[in-house]
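As promised in the previous annual report, we have extended the structural survey to additional targets. Below is the entry for Gamma-glutamylputrescine oxidoreductase.
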Amino acid sequence: MATIAYPQSYYAASANPVPQRPALQEEVQTDVCVIGAGYTGLSSALFLLENGFSVTVVEAAKVGFGASGRNGGQIVNSYSRDIDVIERTVGPRQAQLLGEMAFEGGRIIRDRVAKYNIQCDLKDGGVFAALTSKQMGHLESQKRLWERFGHKQLELMDAKRIREVVACDNYIGGMLDMSGGHIHPLNLALGEAAAVESLGGKIYEQSPAVRIERGANPVVHTPNGRVRAKFIIVAGNAYLGGLVPELAAKSMPCGTQVITTEPLSDELARTLLPQDYCVEDCNYLLDYYRLTSDKRLIFGGGVVYGARDPANIEAIIRPKMLKAFPQLKDVKIDFAWTGNFLLTLSRLPQVGRIGDNIYYSQGCSGHGVTYTHLAGKVLAEALRGQAERFDAFAELPHYPFPGGQMFRVPFSAIGAWYYSLRDRLGV
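The corresponding structure token record, generated without further manual editing, is:
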């Protein structure tokens, strides 16, 4: 089997040193087999190990190979659909539980970084930037909503104030969330993997799960080995393929594109983002950007439905960057890559159990950095018999994409076009 390496991203080029991890070549016995060494799998493994379970992780490529090691690196609170939408869908009790959890993922990340001394360039402060008065009104109501659930580290910004933190003329205001922030996402995953191993967990790379033998004592088969477990956690997200057919119909892999500039002078970097906060705008298909520790600008945006890799990522994203920062017109792009995230029709995560012993979480819909860390805790609680928070997610309604798998891409693209048009028209 050919070895799968990291994509040529800025994160892979600047990653902390990592040990060579073996492929699974034998049969092993464990309490929990976790499929996927991204944030969901690693977070689950850490919480389980801290609570006395034995854990084996099988990964098709390398730790953090998927979205966990390719994303924009932004710690953004809540879910891709906010708590008010959840309240209208499921009622007050379930919404209260989900609302209380909406800000927990960022706290878990900070706890992990501190407890296990993870070197991942953690910085505080995230900005939501409004391009229209409608978007500004949404941020005002979002602030009231979040404060209802105890989230107080928020500041509304008018046009003058946002110019102090983002040197871009396009925004009429915004909201600063000081419990948001940014990280080197691959280094966070690598640090969490080292923490898993420090607690006795096993991680096998280049070991895709090719079949799950279901039953009272489930077995995960890889090309050259197998894992006998009491429980399985499926954490493959957009890279799961057809391993669990029940999970494929209600989700769709989507690609997002990211570019990274050459290192900027301290002076130029300071003029772009003087406080070193990360930024995302409020459009349906949003742009997001931040500075790295070595003063590059990482800029991402756009969605490719169905997760095809576009031929020229820089041609798609560079114009967006120059619209925000025309002063970067002569700056060279050193890295350009794409990565997949998993979209659900509701844009809310799918959490559940198949049979008695196969648990899963997937479909972060672009809000994965914080949610996946929370998901690991919620899945671990469920395996310990504390299912209230797990059930709050598991009871969210989910539907297959209209037209099934054949038509989900064009239908979703039409929907995105409609919302993008509304963004442009400000309606």
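Confidence is low (pLDDT under 50) at residues 404-424. The first strand starts at residue 27 and ends at 35. These points will be discussed at the next consortium meeting with the crystallography subgroup.
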